[in-house]
């Protein structure tokens, strides 16, 4: 069974068609895949929907529809929601300061196998479209989800 940690930048692509939607939909539709999100992603996803209303990408009716659909998916446990602890935020600040990672990517690191704080076994692949620096062991195709296969199967 494959596990994926999705941040809001990737998750929004499942709810609103944009560059990278096909890749995210393949991951979400993968048979037996476990989809993990941080509790913070619950707020960030709705925030991104609101930004899209303010920028005119969609209207308030679409905002309400997507918010309701996302809430239904959460209620039906489509995603496993994890609470980030203080230690995760401390580690994220260190990653941002030392490696220039984006906040979203740094907050996803507690769930990668490279993190000393990872308690999820087997560790998930991180899916994100947030920019990151070249110092991270990752590859980023701008506008597409970020998958970190080099972190997969690495011992903590």
Q: What does it look like?
A:
The protein has 156 residues and is α/β, with parallel strands linked by helices. The protein folds into two domains: 8-82, no CATH class; 86-151, no CATH class. The protein is 44% helix and 12% strand. The protein has helices at residues 8-15, 21-29, 39-54, 60-75, 86-99, 103-108, and strands at 3-6, 34-38, 80-82, 125-128, 146-147. The chain has a five-stranded mixed β-sheet with strand order 3-2-1-4-5. Helix 1 crosses helix 2, helix 1 crosses helix 3 (39-54) and helix 3 packs antiparallel against helix 4 (60-75). The protein is globular. It starts with a strand and ends in a 9-residue tail after the last strand.
The gist of it:
This protein has 156 residues and is of the alpha/beta class.
């Amino acid at each position: 069974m494959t596990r994926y940690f999705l941040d809001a930048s990737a998750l929004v692509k499942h709810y609103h068609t944009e560059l990278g939607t096909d890749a995210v939909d393949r991951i979400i539709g993968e048979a037996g895949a476990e989809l993990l999100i941080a509790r913070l992603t619950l707020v960030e996803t709705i925030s991104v929907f609101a930004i899209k209303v303010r920028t005119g990408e969609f209207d308030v009716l679409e905002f309400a529809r997507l918010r309701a659909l996302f809430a239904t998916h959460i209620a039906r446990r489509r995603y496993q929601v994890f609470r980030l602890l203080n230690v995760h935020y401390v580690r994220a600040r260190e990653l941002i300061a030392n490696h220039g990672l984006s906040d979203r990517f740094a907050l996803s690191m507690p769930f990668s196998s490279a993190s000393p704080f990872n308690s999820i076994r087997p560790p998930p692949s991180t899916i994100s479209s947030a920019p990151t620096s070249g110092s991270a062991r990752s590859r980023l195709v701008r506008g597409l989800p970020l998958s970190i296969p080099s972190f997969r199967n690495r011992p903590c």
